[in-house]
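In this supplementary section we document a worked example of the pipeline. Step one takes a protein sequence of length 217 as its only input; no multiple sequence alignment statistics are reported here. Step two produces a three-dimensional model, which step three serialises into structure tokens for compact storage. The input and output of this example are shown verbatim.
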Amino acid sequence: MKLFKFSIGIGLIAVLSILMTSADHIDSPAVTSMPTDITDYYAFSSPENSSNMVFVANLSGLLTPANTTSAGFDENVLIEFNIDNDGDNVEDLVIQAIPRDGKMYFFGPVAPSQTGTSSQVQSGNDPISVDITQYGESAKMTNFGGFKVFAGPRDDPFFFDLGAYMDVLTGNAGGFSDPGTDTFAGTNVLSVVIELPKSMLGNTASLSTWVESKVKS
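The serialised model returned by step three reads:
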């Protein structure tokens, strides 16, 4: 078991069948330069199979195409998807993603041995792995035991008109235009995507879910 500490994450309350998202792109340089910086998190029912749930964590935002070529997941960083299925805002299940030697390994969903900001790798079962897709490659995915997983660079999917937002804040505009300007157009993120049966998540009448990135101590 390896201990991970110092989490930086984004919280999200997710209700099944409704797309929920949380985003945080423009941080201080000390944060955005860290391999733990989470830009956004998505949780939703699969549009292809309503019996499945999809979790997407994006890290290392605002990557230019040139910077994306050399960007990669840090092997000292654990990406942990937390699922609360009993309404007490404490994780009942976790899915852990850890990069090693060009692959992303996934453990869970499994009850964590400890909750909160420190984690132990739940390595009791054989992990599912996928080759990390490199920039410019076709997406590499693994389908196994009801799981579908992916890890690698993707175009930033989050649309936000930062200029219009600043104009609204300063009183220079009364609202946003449609469609507006995509501030993040042309930039990339590092994505970790998991699709799995909802039956693996316990009580799915209502779920709370959040993601954390944790640095090995």
